[in-house]
Amino acid sequence: MEKLNPGILKTKQHFEILDGLRGVAAIAVVTFHFMEIAYSDYSKDFIGHGFLAVDFFFCLSGFVIGYAYDDRIGKMGIMEFFKSRLIRLHPLVVFGSVLGLLGFLFDPFNAQPIARSGGSILLLFLSSIFMIPNATMTERYFNLFGFNAPAWSLFWEYAANVIYALVLYRLARHYLIVLAVIAAAGICYVAGHSGNLMGGWSGDTFWDGGVRIAYSFTAGLLVYRYNLIIKNKIGFIGLSVLLMLAFLMPFSSWNWLSEPFVVIIYFPLLVALGAGAVLNNGLRKICVFSGNISYPLYMTHYFVMWMFGSYYAANKPDAIHLAYIIIPGLIILVTFAYLVMKAYDIPLRRYLTEKRKKIIK
């Protein structure tokens, strides 16, 4: 058996504007999570469609996975691909689970005693670490991952990566189009049936998440495979504004129509524009920083949301006090995500990658 060249594991050059947009989407979804706790009526929430950031992540992931691995997964092999993805994603899955456990045990604003046995808590924690959906926490609204709610989308990201390695990377483009059309029909069905595309995070809406990633991941892959990269001079700022419009659009009775339009057409278009946009050198560092903190921010923020929920239920702060909490909260969470990335995620991934290369040699 021929030995794998360690050079094949090197990361390809990034699309820096797309990295920057990932960070914009991450900040939008954190803001949305703050706001949905304060405003259960999403029509009164200025960022009531922030949850669509997940669909943008999925579409971006399809594009990036195709770009990064289409021409080398055959050489590196499926198992090495899986190792690459685990090293990239799983350290923060574990870290987010630990934060979620600590937040559950030591929430300073929750006066209710913990009504769970040690064995139950351990089982929930292990489920979270090993990405096994466990929608049994009534006190966490039956989230698939009660200790780290956003991990539901990572579960589907893992599933998409497995299907990509086993099937999609070999699949001809015209068959991908067929899959995308079927998945788009699924998106329309879910939106029509539920009234929106918010599902996927709970036991009751589990398969909605599968439909959401089935379309968006495939659409991103098609953007790459057909080289649907649109050269333009909109730039990072302009594209950030266009992306935010999707999250800021009114939450209304027309969601069944507007949300599928955004997911099926608008987000793939933004990925195509982002891949072809010219980056102003003055904004390069912002894009790199934004892209770097996006995943750590997404995977480490939710333990604070549960504590904020406890605080809000006990104190019912008004709009002014909410602003005093949410704006500094966003800054603190971004800073915390950066520190986690620097002190934990990057060193651990570097260690695992170097160890892997030595084994290959």
Describe the structure.
The mean pLDDT is 95. The chain is mainly α and 361 residues long. The longest helix is centred in the C-terminal third of the chain and has 42 residues, at 319-360. The relative contact order is 0.18. The chain has one domain. The radius of gyration is 20 Å and the shape is globular. Helix 4 (78-105) runs parallel beside helix 12. It starts with 15 loop residues before the first helix and ends with a helix. It has 13 helices and no strands.
Present the secondary structure layout.
Blueprint: H1 16-38, H2 53-69, H3 73-76, H4 78-105, H5 118-129, H6 151-166, H7 173-194, H8 206-225, H9 235-248, H10 255-276, H11 284-300, H12 302-315, H13 319-360
Helix pairs in contact: 1-2, 1-9, 1-11, 1-12, 1-13, 2-8, 2-10, 4-5, 4-6, 4-11, 4-12, 4-13, 6-8, 7-8, 7-10, 8-10, 9-10, 11-13
